[in-house]
Amino acid sequence: KMLHAVAALSNSTSLASQVGSRLELCRGSRCSSAALADSSLCGAHSGGGCYLLSQSSLLGSVRSLDLLGFAPAAGHREPPQLPSFSLGFGFLHPDCWRHVRVRWRRSRPLLEAEPALTRAATQEWAHPRASRGLRVIVDARCMPFLLDGSVGPRALAKDGVRREAVVVTVVEPSGRERRAHVVQRVVVSPDAAAALLAARRAHAAAVSPLLQTPEEAGEGEGGAADGGSATSSLLAELRERSEARQRRRLTAWRLIALNCAVLALNGLIAVRGVALWALLQRLRVEEWIHRARPHVGTTLQAMRVLNWVTLPVRWPLARLPRPGR
Fold this sequence. Notes:
By secondary structure, the chain is an alpha+beta fold. Helices cover 44% and strands 19% of the residues. It contains twelve helices and nine strands. The protein has helices spanning 2-7, 15-19, 64-68, 115-124, 143-147, 153-156, 193-202, 214-217, 221-282, 285-292, 296-309, 311-319; strands spanning 22-27, 30-36, 50-53, 97-105, 108-113, 134-139, 161-171, 177-188, 211-212. The longest helix is centred in the C-terminal third of the chain and has 62 residues, at 221-282. Mean pLDDT is 78; it is low at 219-227.
């Protein structure tokens, strides 16, 4: 009864005030619960708070994926502690959830937000490969959509979906490049088209903008414009970041090359300068300069007298025509 009541809540209703500090479902001796998370980890539009999802016991949350129906099947490649995208968790709006990493301090778990991993998962429609210690936090306003059995993610994932993606090169902060499949749109099956339209009416703020019905996907660019608008901005951001990093790398290499060239030039000048000094030492130029220095004054005076004495001869000769003039 509690699950049906939660699924019927409107988006404007505070979920936390309706169901207390946790969602809980008991089947026999096995109970599943989703713990109310710290408000600092909630989104800007979380409304009635946010909930931590974890399969293992963590801060009051245990087997939350079983409670919501998102536990990966046995042998599935997706991380067991995170909700499966293939089961419909990817249908949730990107503003409704976020990744958090569990850090242990003095044997007590602390949660730290991972916005970069959340953006990457939204773009690639899959959890990151390095998912150790990761959990997800979901806003309370989006819980009714997750728990809605008629138009929720499990109903939309009926008969599978078709994902359309583009392959881009992503440069990670460490400098390593990798190929990423950025999803542009997710097309539900024809049987789930009516459920998707109903979900948009009932849970408009919780449904991912990437979702499209087959009819919308078949309308070409006009029909896909609304669904792909969010992804186009993500693609533009990816390309811009990749190009910016590439430009920084090129600038760095140019600066390194310029510094190497300056160092090589300084080394060449130093080598040639030492060789020139050795040549001057061998020719005893310094000794000749010291010998000639006392006679510099006398030589200058003699040159001035000689200049005036030869002036009567040089002046007529300067007036004679020169060959080739």
